[in-house]
Design goal:
Strand order of the largest sheet: 6-7-8-9-19-15-14-11-12
Shape: globular
Strand content: 25-35%
Oligomer: single chain
Number of strands: 38
Structural class: alpha+beta
Bound molecules: alpha-D-galactopyranose
Radius of gyration: 27 Å
Distance between the termini: 47 Å
Largest sheet: 9 strands, antiparallel
């Protein structure tokens, strides 16, 4: 970090290993953005341009200077009310009923270490690993004060941004829009990469040119959603996986969000990311402070692979917490696709016995073990064990399962309630509902008002009660609908529900991990409907998608890999015909695809052939052998499965000595041309040996021409090739 002043100006320069971010406080006290990109020195004030531009107004403080306009200048915190007509970061409704704010520089503080955010997830780091810059701004008319927070993690090329808004004035104000990060580029012609989807088909990669007019992604569902992921990339037109400039913005929040990218009238690009401003009108009383959740920023001039690797390390090592942050994840068998709601204690124990024989570590009892829950129409909210269905107590079942050497995990959906439940009959007002209107049901359920502490407290008590009944080592935290009726019986203002609900979820999860630090929590929202950097602060893995079809998963996991490390991607081998698509894929292929994730099974071993059972044992052995590479290695996308015939990806150890290449043939044709897949990131001029064949290869050739993928008969064959570095220098 470098802070220095000249004449009437003050420059803040944030340096990471390969990037520089610079801002300037000018003579009027405006905080202007100057530069973000490849590492550089000096000041970039020269990039600013001034011209007398029609219909771009001038703040009064500049006097007769008609060339100074907030409508054209790059800014750190663009506000509605200063003459900037582009999309703002902040909109405030003042206590006198007027809109507008005008934040000017007041001071700063820089320190070692990374700031934390009260009640919110945030990137964390050791004192020596990070720096914090706080910049204080003030609107002297309303007395609203802003603290802009910048976290710098130099080694990772990561910068984080957040802001605190304090009403230090008189009377109630309303925050109508609050976005954490704004990136203003004075030039550039970018592509926007975003990730759209739907239930069971999340995070599809989409690359479109940034055009005049705003491109908006977001969620108004109260969760980060299946439909758009709160992560976006701006890339130069020519940027590829391996070369070129690109920027990532990832929102560390699990509720509604808005991401906007606009090419403005002067061909400047503005990218904003933060809270959704729809149904958001957050009241701040005198003295109250609002915290805008954090955005993680990263820049790479070496293409998208490096950008993803920066985000992977940040999420894996600086957002995920607890013993499973680095600890090996258990290979689990989940009961859902094996038996859905149709099970009892005996059948679960049988599943456990079969799993144990195959070398699986853990059995997870999914939905259906509590209240009155034999289908998805009733019982949510009643977190007491249905001993009649199990035929025994939960404690006894777990003991039996532990007795055969298996760990035990359990499914919950704490935020939801069925109208047909004891809880709803007792506390109908605890559900989110709009007065005098019938609620919108989804999966025949409603949501509990997690913006109310008493509701969170009660459910927390119920869940702990169950968790205390035995040695439960894993929890799957699910949520199976979007929020809709944003009305709280307790909130004094409805504009706060969207945000406070998420805080309630975080509060619950924080208490849960404090009380049960050894439990592995897997997040889930109908698969990957709440798959965001915020959730990873509490749940070090999230079920990636309800779609377990290996071929769809190649694409879903491809999109997911741009923003999220493999260590957080919940992925299982399931039965065929696949339950979501009806597709048939080889057992081996399903194993290869599930190994690009936390790895486990979602099937009934009873339905498998002896050959498939043998394959399971083999797969588990392989997964254990490669687990460190998969969890901590550098990840490369080797092909684009949306456009190419082969889906391929690679894990390589940081010291470049071990490489695992995975390839799935997505199309088979008569007399097919041979597919070659180029490896990436190997040590140059070296020899690597492929383990199974024992064959050696020159690293440069592997990276230049690639490895040959066999053309075998049959749909969707997959290959896994493990290489080790055998010779540091290849002179031959
Ligand atoms: C969601 C999850 C599934 C399963 C079911 C249970 O759809 O994503 O994995 O747990 O709920 O109802």
């Amino acid at each position: 970090m470098n802070i220095y002043s000249n004449e009437q100006k003050l420059f803040f320069t944030l340096h990471t290993k390969h990037t520089t971010y610079q801002m300037m406080v000018d003579e009027y006290g405006f905080l202007l953005h100057l530069y973000y990109g490849r590492k550089t020195s000096g000041t970039m004030e020269y990039l600013l341009s001034f011209a007398d531009r029609g219909f771009s107004g001038n703040p009064s403080c500049v006097g007769a200077d008609r060339t100074y306009s907030m409508d054209a200048l790059p800014q750190e915190l663009p506000c509605q009310g200063t003459g900037d007509y582009r999309s703002p970061s902040i909109v405030i409704l003042n206590s006198d009923g007027s809109y507008g704010c005008d934040f000017r520089y007041k001071g700063y503080l820089s320190r070692k270490g990374k700031y934390a955010l009260k009640k919110l997830p945030a990137v964390y780091a050791d004192e020596e690993e990070a720096e914090t810059l706080e910049i204080y701004l003030e609107d002297t008319v309303s007395n609203v004060q802003v603290t802009l927070l910048y976290g710098v993690l130099p080694e990772l090329d990561i910068i984080t941004r957040s802001a605190q808004i304090t009403n230090a004035g008189f009377g109630k104000i309303y925050l109508e829009k609050a976005q954490a990060a704004c990136l203003d580029f004075v030039n550039g012609d970018f592509d926007l990469i975003s990730f759209y989807g739907r239930h069971a088909m999340e995070r599809n990669f989409q690359r479109t040119p940034v055009v005049h007019g705003a491109q908006v992604i977001g969620s108004r569902r109260g969760t980060s959603s299946h439909q758009y992921n709160p992560m976006l990339i701006l890339a130069d037109k020519e940027t590829t996986e391996d070369a070129g400039s690109c920027y990532a913005m990832s929102f560390v929040f699990s509720g509604s969000f808005k991401g906007e990218v606009e090419w403005d009238q002067y061909n400047q690009t503005r990218a904003l990311l933060g809270l959704s401003d729809e149904l958001f009108s957050y009241p701040l009383l005198e003295g109250e402070t609002f915290i805008i959740p954090e955005v993680v920023l990263s820049y790479s001039r070496d293409g998208l692979a490096k950008l993803s690797q920066n985000l992977h390390k940040c999420i894996r090592n600086h957002l995920c917490r607890g013993s499973y942050q680095t600890g090996r994840r258990p290979v689990l068998l989940n009961s859902w696709e094996a038996s859905y709601f149709d099970f009892n204690g005996e059948s679960i124990f049988q599943l456990a016995k079969d799993a144990a024989e195959l070398g699986i570590d853990m059995i997870v009892m999914d939905d259906g073990w509590f209240g009155k829950r034999d289908d998805d129409n009733s019982g949510l909210g009643d977190w007491y064990v249905n001993e009649d269905k199990l035929g025994e107590s939960l404690g006894a079942l777990i003991q039996k399962i532990n007795g055969i050497g298996l760990k035990f995990g359990l499914w919950f959906e704490p935020e939801s309630v069925n109208e047909d439940s004891d809880l709803f009959r007792m506390h109908p007002d605890w559900a989110l509902r709009t007065p005098n209107r019938l609620p919108v049901r989804a999966r025949n359920q409603l949501l509990l008002d997690f913006s109310r502490k008493e509701v969170v407290d009660y459910i927390f008590g119920q869940v702990c009660n169950v968790l205390d009944q035995g040695n439960i080592e894993y929890v799957k935290w699910d949520l199976n609908r979007s929020l809709c009726d944003f009305y709280s019986n307790a909130a004094s203002n409805q504009g706060r529900v969207m945000y406070d609900y998420v805080l309630g979820v975080y509060d619950f999860l924080e208490r849960l991990i404090k009380r049960y630090p050894k439990i592995l929590i897997e997040g889930c929202s109908g698969g990957g409907g709440r798959f965001d950097a915020g959730m990873f602060y509490y749940t070090p893995q999230i079920w990636c998608s309800d779609n377990t079809d290996a071929i769809d998963r190649v694409r879903i996991q491809f999109g997911t890999s741009f923003g999220y490390p493999i260590s957080v991607v919940g992925s299982h081998v399931s039965a065929v015909p696949n339950h979501q698509t009806g597709r048939l894929t080889p057992f081996h292929t399903r194993g290869v695809v599930a190994m690009a994730g936390t790895f486990g099974y979602e099937l009934d071993p009873k339905s498998l052939s002896e050959e498939e059972k043998r394959e399971i044992k083999e797969q588990i052995g392989e997964y254990r052998q490669y687990a460190d590479l998969i969890q901590e290695g550098l990840y490369y996308r080797l092909t684009n499965p949306l456009t190419e015939k082969v889906g391929a990806w690679e894990f390589i150890s940081e010291d470049l000595s071990r490489v695992l290449v995975n390839a799935v043939v997505l199309q088979i044709h008569g007399n097919m041309p041979v597919n070659y897949v180029r490896l990436k990131g190997l040590k140059e001029n070296c020899i690597y040996r492929e383990q199974k064949s024992g064959r050696t290869y020159a690293s440069n050739a592997l990276m230049e021409c690639g490895i040959l993928i066999p053309n075998e008969m049959g749909d969707y064959q997959a290959y896994q090739m493990y290489f080790e570095l055998v010779n540091e220098v290849n002179n031959g």
